[in-house]
Specification:
Blueprint (H helix, E strand, L loop, with lengths): L1 E8 L4 H11 L11 E10 L4 H14 L3 E10 L6 E8 L1 H11 L15 E6 L3 H10 L4 E6 L1 E7 L5 E8 L3
Antiparallel strand pairs: 1-2, 1-7, 3-4, 3-6, 4-5, 7-8
Length: about 170
């Protein structure tokens, strides 16, 4: 079995910048999780299904137009979940449609929570660290064009690594 996820990687230099902030806030997962917007949360699949899953993702990416994401400001899932994130100010509807298409066919899975595109910058930390993340990035603002998404695999060492990129239609 493989544990996979599908996500939009955050373009450089913003991805590294937000990952550094996450580490500075004390999040021990900062170096294990590339900065991203989730399209498919961690999902266990049989290894032999990976070629079929990749074909599914290639087909849908070839039909899906590229789009723009703008990240601006912070929000939180507290008290439901101890998470602080950078919000999407642009690209929400494209992410919502894309994730629903990703989660079809061989990847038809139910979600634990309603889908809400975001970029996590602090998770499972004490209140003070979560507050600091929320305040520090309150004025964060960047934008980039999304031209692809990736399938990631969770390694035995706990690190998420991109396995394959799926270019969007353009």
């Amino acid at each position: 079995m493989a544990t996979i996820g599908v996500a939009i990687p955050i373009e450089e230099p913003f991805g590294s910048e937000l990952q550094k902030y996450r580490a500075d806030f004390g999040d021990p997962m900062a170096s294990s999780i590339p900065t991203h917007v989730t399209l498919l949360p961690p999902t266990e699949v049989p290894d032999e299904d990976l070629p079929r899953i990749d074909e599914h993702l290639l087909e849908l990416a070839a039909r899906f137009p590229s789009f723009r994401i703008r990240l601006r400001g912070t929000a939180t899932f507290r008290p439901i979940s101890p998470v602080v994130f950078v919000t999407l100010a642009e690209g929400i509807s494209s992410c919502e449609v894309l994730q629903s298409q990703v989660r079809s066919g061989p990847l038809a899975v139910d979600l634990r929570f309603p889908y809400h595109p975001h970029v996590t910058v602090a998770h499972d930390l004490d209140k003070e660290s979560l507050d600091r993340a929320y305040d520090t990035l309150a004025d964060y603002d960047c934008a980039f064009d999304v031209s692809a998404f990736s399938r990631y695999e969770h390694g035995a060492d706990g690190v998420w690594r991109p396995q394959r990129a799926f270019p969007l239609k353009g």
